[in-house]
Design a protein that fits this description.
This protein is of the alpha+beta class and 426 residues long. Helices cover 16% and strands 35% of the residues. It is globular, with a radius of gyration of 22 Å.
């Protein structure tokens, strides 16, 4: 089977803050060289693209092809093996561009690694299901007093509470009626249990989306009892934002990640000010956020780079796992449970839930990433979760794929799965 060069999808891969010569320029230059069989120049150009935009499945796949064309099979092997650490869903095994590589021991190693990366692991079980057309769950929290889950909805801008078995449901808040948009992350306040913090962003999947709201995001303080928005916090300056996940610390401060800008924002509980905490142009796409046990470091998920460790005082950023940090790429929600950091990796292929172990200061105890769930049929797009004692609940199939031209496909809307993982069994 001929496969050959993969196509780079420019439209979804360039952050709005990237300007000047970027990885796409080098990629296009490389393709021009490839079409003229100038493979050395092709590899040089794609290597530059890879350095500017790390861990891109298309760039790395094509870079491996370039090395194979130069008969540098060792380099092709290392590039493909690294790529399978986060993208093993499509096989290169029959691609004729790797004919030369097939005749080497490297190829046999890659075959074994490919099978290993696609093994099925299934430790979590479905706790309950939600049968509601158009309900688009993204974030989940738990209220200990009422023993009910609070689940956010992107499509309608709702917070809906569910009994622990999922049978009883009740709308807690409708933020559209209060002037806001789809809801993403949700966390109960650590000081006042009657308050819940939620991120809201204007995305096209929101039922009442208007183009004039594009790029607007807010942090909302909501009363659990009345559902009213008590306070809203928005960033000025004209840049587009997408607030996704959030962290509420023990002293009541709230950190918020921005998936469009390379920013983390902080709401200071004492001063009630919502300000930029950190900005770093090396950041690509922020998702989940956690804090070390000693409260000295934030752990943040960059969807492209993998897990990053941020010193709260100095704001210095380092990768958590160094040269194998790519294995943590594609993490959405991240959750520290005792000494283990659990990752919901919906940006890998196949999708997986995994964990690694941390020291008190948030540094990794070793470079091992342990797989919990992988290649589970019903777990198509897991997003965010919540820890309840020794159990971890998470949304298993947020229905992002059930839109066409940003309109919901109600007739195809799936049963929505809420999973439960018993931590002591892992």
């Amino acid at each position: 089977m001929t496969k050959g060069i993969l196509v780079l999808l420019f439209c979804i891969l360039i952050p709005e803050f990237v300007t000047g010569q970027n990885y796409v320029d080098y990629y296009n230059t490389g393709i021009s060289h490839f079409n003229k069989a100038e493979y050395k120049d092709f590899v040089e150009a794609l290597s530059k693209a890879d350095s500017l935009r790390p861990n891109h499945p298309t760039i790395t796949y094509n870079l491996a092809i370039g090395y194979a064309k130069l008969n540098n099979f060792e380099k092709a092997f290392h590039v493909l093996k690294k790529r399978m650490g986060y993208s093993a869903g499509e096989t290169f095994l029959e691609d004729e561009e790797f004919l030369g590589l097939r005749e080497t021991e490297y190829f046999n190693q890659l075959e074994r690694y490919y099978l290993e990366q696609n093994e099925t692991h299934e430790k979590s079980n479905i706790a309950f299901q939600i049968d509601k057309k158009g309900f688009h769950p993204e974030g989940i929290d738990y209220d200990e007093e009422s023993e009910r889950f609070y689940i956010t909805d992107i499509h309608q801008g709702l917070i809906v509470s569910f009994s622990k078995d999922g049978n009883e449901k009740e709308i807690v808040s409708n933020v559209f009626e209060q002037g806001f948009w789809g809801l993403f992350g949700i966390k109960t306040d650590k000081i006042d249990n009657s308050i819940v913090w939620v991120t809201s962003s204007a995305v096209p999947e929101f039922k009442h989306y208007q183009e004039s709201d594009k790029g607007r995001s807010v942090l909302l303080k909501i009363s659990k009892k009345t559902g009213k928005v008590l306070m809203s916090y928005e960033v000025s300056g004209g840049q587009p934002h997408l607030f996704g996940d959030l962290l509420v610390t023990d002293n009541g401060d709230v950190y918020v990640t921005d998936s469009i800008q390379p920013h983390i924002y902080k709401l200071n509980r004492t001063t009630n000010t919502f300000d930029l905490f950190i900005s770093n142009d090396l950041i690509w796409n922020l998702q989940g956020i956690a804090i070390s046990k000693d409260n000295s470091h934030l752990i943040i998920s960059d969807y492209i780079l993998g897990l990053l460790r941020v010193n709260i005082d100095s704001k210095k950023i380092t990768t958590l796992l160094g040269d194998i940090n790519h294995k943590t790429r594609g993490s959405d929600g991240i959750y520290l449970i005792d000494e283990r950091l659990f990752l919901i990796q919906n940006g890998t292929s196949p999708v997986r839930v995994s964990y690694l172990t941390l020291n008190n200061d948030g540094s990794a105890t070793n470079k091992e990433v342990h797989i919990v769930d992988q290649n589970v049929n019903e777990m198509t797009d897991p997003t965010l979760g919540v820890v309840i004692d020794s159990e971890f609940y998470f949304i298993g199939n947020s229905p992002w794929q059930y839109y066409k031209n940003e309109k919901p496909l109600y007739e195809k809307w799936p049963l929505l799965n809420i999973y439960k993982l018993v931590i002591d069994e892992v």
